[in-house]
Write a structure and sequence with these properties.
Blueprint: H1 2-34, H2 44-57, H3 61-132, H4 134-139, H5 147-168, E1 171-172, E2 182-185, E3 206-209, E4 216-217
Antiparallel strand pairs: 1-4, 2-3
Helix pairs in contact: 1-3, 3-5
């Protein structure tokens, strides 16, 4: 990886620079001490020891010390590079894991949203079925019944479903005029609330006849949405255990 190469080169240069600086500092110190006969004139034994060391290591001390510090620098560089590579791999793995987790979570959220949309779509039917048995009525073959029987069944279903609608949305007419009355549509009318049909030309105001008063919700109190794991269930089957 480019980042590893860049870090390796820069860290190598920095470590070698500091090792060379320390080596130079140590060598300079030894050189100063080895030439301190004047300063140490009162300490003959110490001077003799320093002179002996200077004679023995004059030709070897500098390259040996340079080699030692170079070796220490290389070992330090290898350790730092190893730690950096491991840290980078751990970081990359954490990023990949995080991306995978985000992807899985996004997939789950998408699936949950889809299921939620399906539940919302079927939720109204579920409420009508629970309160007024509307799905049972739709599934019946009315050819097997007399009109009087159908009328009696429809009355009961109508009353139950009407209670659901009134309780949930309290519907009211979009406009106050009755069907068949004449009405003038002003220029600032809401096209989402009033649909114009017939000979619609020019610019408002328009004069027309009310064909349908429309419906709007005065309030909205949604019943609790089912948390069923199967969003296609409108109403569960009922089994009485005996």
């Amino acid at each position: 990886m480019d980042i590893i190469k860049a870090y390796s080169f820069r860290s190598f240069v920095i470590i070698m620079f500091f090792m060379a600086f320390i080596c130079l500092l140590v060598d300079s110190t030894f050189y100063v001490i080895s030439n301190a006969e004047v300063v140490l004139s009162g300490h003959k034994n110490l001077i003799d020891l320093v002179v002996m060391l200077e004679e023995k290591f004059r030709l070897y001390y500098v390259p040996i010390s340079a080699g030692i510090f170079t070796l220490i620098g290389l070992l330090l560089w290898v350790c730092m590079r190893f730690l950096f590579v491991n840290l980078l791999k751990t970081s990359d793995k954490a990023i990949v894991d995080k991306k995978d987790d985000t992807k899985v979570k996004g997939s789950l959220d998408k699936k949950e949203k889809k299921n939620n949309d399906r539940r919302l779509f079927l939720h109204l039917l579920s409420v009508f079925q629970r309160e007024g048995r509307l799905m049972d009525f739709f599934s019946e073959d009315l050819n097997h019944y007399e009109d009087s029987q159908i009328g009696a069944a429809v009355r009961s279903i109508h009353e139950s479903c009407k209670k659901v609608v009134d309780r949930a949305i309290s519907p009211e007419s979009v406009i106050g005029e009755k069907e068949g009355d004449q009405i003038t549509i002003q220029q600032d009318f809401d096209p989402t609330a009033i649909k114009l049909t017939g000979n619609v030309t020019g610019e408002p105001p328009f004069k027309g006849i009310v064909r349908h008063r429309g419906w709007k919700a005065k309030r909205l109190e949604m019943p609790t949405l089912s948390s069923s794991l199967e969003p296609g269930i409108i109403a569960p089957a009922e089994v009485e255990i005996v």
